[in-house]
Design brief:
There is one protein chain. By secondary structure, this protein is of the alpha+beta class. About 35% of the residues lie in helices and about 30% in strands. The termini are far apart.
Length: about 110
């Protein structure tokens, strides 16, 4: 999963980075988008994360007050992305979409 585009801008007040992550299909990208957008950055981190979906690509834009905070946020994001990607691969979610039933029998 190579990054299509990664850019970092440093200004006087903030540091920004944009990641464009292509997926094998639009449905895989949608699964990743729906999972990854739930995880917000902690307020103490001073990082703002905006995530969007464009066909088979998930685009993430980070804005931080310091490079250190930006690096930490991106590292955390990649940990979640890797887990999401492995889950999609292991469950072959595209072919099995809609076939999972709840196992809660209580």
């Amino acid at each position: 999963m190579p990054l299509e585009d990664a850019s970092v801008k440093t200004g006087e007040k903030s540091t920004e980075a944009t990641l464009k992550i292509p997926f094998e299909s639009a449905s895989h990208a949608e699964i990743a988008y729906r999972v990854l957008r739930v995880d917000e950055e902690p307020r103490r981190n001073f990082v703002k994360k905006t995530i969007s979906l464009k066909e088979d690509t998930v685009e993430v834009h980070f804005t931080a007050d310091q490079v250190k905070n930006l690096r930490t946020a991106i590292t955390s994001f990649f940990e979640n992305l890797i887990l999401c990607k492995e889950t999609i691969k292991n469950f072959n979610l595209e072919e099995n979409a809609g076939t999972f039933a709840s196992s809660n029998t209580a």
